[in-house]
């Protein structure tokens, strides 16, 4: 680890490394991400056309979002600190005939190498897994060029989110393995907005992602009380 790789916990890396071979099993532990992905991709595209855009996907995991953005015409760099996940991502992209640059590097380190080189930064379902989410937002602000977009998704911190995202998803519906989330790391939208403002990002939009147990599907809503998406923009 270097000083720019401090924002990671070994337990989190181990958690996702053990499951790395399951990233593309649409009926396995990462099924919720496969269900979420079409909605988060469409939400990004509603704000910015991805064709020809330089995109960095922070915490890309096995490449679920990275691949969908590359298929939409973006020039994608996917970064993660779980090497096992990146190996899966590279193999799957090769099989899908998609040209994606996967790198074992932290957002903070990449920000020192490639400041202002991306039109779009995405960080989905990742902020709630790091010790210092403000550092990720700061790195995202450094990576995106003026006029560019930063898209994040995470979990709100309130009683309803605890009930649905932990008790419901992990224990009752078993959509996720037990222990996937730590409620103390959930983030309220106002907190992310404040992090963005401190490094020059303006909050442009916010939407909720609501899971419907009967249909086993997600939908985009205006209810941000559990899962939510946020779009931030670096002014010109």
TrEMBL record:
Top-rank taxon, per record: Bacteria
GO MF terms, alphabetically ordered: 2-polyprenyl-6-hydroxyphenol methylase activity; 3-demethylubiquinol 3-O-methyltransferase activity; polyprenyldihydroxybenzoate methyltransferase activity
Catalytic activity: a 3-(all-trans-polyprenyl)benzene-1,2-diol + S-adenosyl-L-methionine = a 2-methoxy-6-(all-trans-polyprenyl)phenol + S-adenosyl-L-homocysteine + H(+); a 3-demethylubiquinol + S-adenosyl-L-methionine = a ubiquinol + S-adenosyl-L-homocysteine + H(+)
Recorded metabolic or biological pathway in which this protein acts: Cofactor biosynthesis; ubiquinone biosynthesis
Annotated EC: 2.1.1.222, 2.1.1.64
A single BP term in Gene Ontology: methylation
Keyword Transferase: yes
Record-listed S-adenosyl-L-methionine binding positions: 40, 59, 80, 124
The family this protein is said to belong to: Belongs to the methyltransferase superfamily. UbiG/COQ3 family.
HAMAP family: UbiG
PANTHER family with a match to the protein in the record: METHYLTRANSFERASE, UBIQUINONE BIOSYNTHESIS O-METHYLTRANSFERASE, MITOCHONDRIAL
Known role: O-methyltransferase that catalyzes the 2 O-methylation steps in the ubiquinone biosynthetic pathway.
Descriptive protein name: Ubiquinone biosynthesis O-methyltransferase
Organism, scientific name: Thiomonas arsenitoxydans (strain DSM 22701 / CIP 110005 / 3As)
Lineage: Bacteria, Pseudomonadati, Pseudomonadota, Betaproteobacteria, Burkholderiales
Gene: ubiG
């Amino acid at each position: 680890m270097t000083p720019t790789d401090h924002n990671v916990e070994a337990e989190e890396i181990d958690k996702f490394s053990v499951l790395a071979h399951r990233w593309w099993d649409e009926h396995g532990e990462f099924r919720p991400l496969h269900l979420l992905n079409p909605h988060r991709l469409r939400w990004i595209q509603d704000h910015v056309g991805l064709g020809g855009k330089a995109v960095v996907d922070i915490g890309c995991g096995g490449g679920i979002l990275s691949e969908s953005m590359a298929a939409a015409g973006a020039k994608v760099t996917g970064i993660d600190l779980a090497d096992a996940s990146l190996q899966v991502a590279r193999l799957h992209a090769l099989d899908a005939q998609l040209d994606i640059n996967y790198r074992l590097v932290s957002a903070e380190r990449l920000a020192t190498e490639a400041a202002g080189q991306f039109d779009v930064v995405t960080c989905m379902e990742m902020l709630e897994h790091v010790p210092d989410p403000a550092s990720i937002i700061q790195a995202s602000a450094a990576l995106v060029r003026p006029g560019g977009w930063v898209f994040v998704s995470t979990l709100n911190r309130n009683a309803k989110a605890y009930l649905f995202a932990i008790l419901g998803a992990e224990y009752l519906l078993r959509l996720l393995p037990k222990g996937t989330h730590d409620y103390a790391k959930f983030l309220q939208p106002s907190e992310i907005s404040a992090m963005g403002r401190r490094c020059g990002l303006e909050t442009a939009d916010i939407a909720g992602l609501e899971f419907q147990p009967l249909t086993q599907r997600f939908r985009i809503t205006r209810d941000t009380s559990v899962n939510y998406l946020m779009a931030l923009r670096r002014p010109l």
